[in-house]
Structures are given as structure tokens and as C-alpha cells.
Design goal:
alpha+beta, two-stranded antiparallel sheet, 8 strands, 20% helix, elongated
Amino acid sequence: MHPLDVADLLQEEVERLRKQIADQPALRAEAPVLALRSVPTITVAFAKVERARLQETVPLGMLGPGGGALARQMQGIDLSSKSERRLLLQLGCDDYDGQPPTAQLLASDGTPLPAEQWPKDLIRQGIIDGHRDYKRPFFCRPGLREFHTHPQHEDDPWDSHREAVRLHTITLNLLHDLQARWMLST
């Protein structure tokens, strides 16, 4: 695709995204910003509500081999407190839509978010660390380059999704999950 056609396509996607974000205040997101540089990017600033994880050792009231008391580690979410931080979701759109976009989280100053600060969920799914091409956590979902280039997903090529999955939809789904699903900061 010619670079001018890519720019037009990205501008259309950003306009759709802008309208949908405006209609969904619960996303706590600002209007997307399109930067047409050597690597075109779409950046969306958003306020991330986070809750801490609680861990408690609960005695089971049983004895194990050797007579030691058995216990179980329980995890949960601290509903009594929450914090908020401003993050940036950035999609790299080089070679879009011949290639899917990349997606990463940035701190509010635009620097890459350290791995230990990426959101998590209790079962550690959806955000993965350990991609051969990316030295950062990544969102493991169809429609993103990190997913389609991962060895476990070589049988699920981008071309099987690119007609049905639009850039604004990918971005909105990530924002929704960042607010509702991936909310534990530690």
C-alpha cells in the first residue's frame, strides 16, 4: 500500500476511534493522536484505575506428612482501596494493514512502561512476557503483530483477520480490558 493511502486509512481509523471514545466515558480515555512519522503511531492517553492484590495464608486444619500443619495461599483483590495513574496505549502502524499493528504501554511521559508495572490479572492471562521479537510484555490477542508473530500462533496468520478486525476495534478492546480485566498493579 502506498504511504499516502496508509495515511488516509489511519486517519479514517483514528476518526472512528475518536468518536467511539467520546461515546464511552467509562474508558477514561482521551482523543487519540495520530503521528505520521517513519513509523506511524496512534497514541491514546487514559486514566488507569488499579487495585492491589491481596495474598493470605489460610490454615486448612489438617496435618500433612510429618505432622506439619497444611495451609493454602489465597489471592484476591483489595476492594477497599484503588489508585489511578495516567498511561499511554501506543499502536505502531508501520506497514499497516499489510502487517497488524503493535501495541505497547507507555508511562505518561512517553517512556516504555517497565515490565513490572504492566497491569496483571489473577490468572496471568492476556498480557504475556517473553516474545522473541519484543523485550517487553505484550498483549496476546489476534489482530496484534505480537500475537501473529509468536511461535505459538504461527497457524493463525494476520491475513485471516485483517478484513474483519479494524484498528479502532483493536484499540477499543484493549482499552476496555485495561479498565476491566487487567487491573492488578502488583
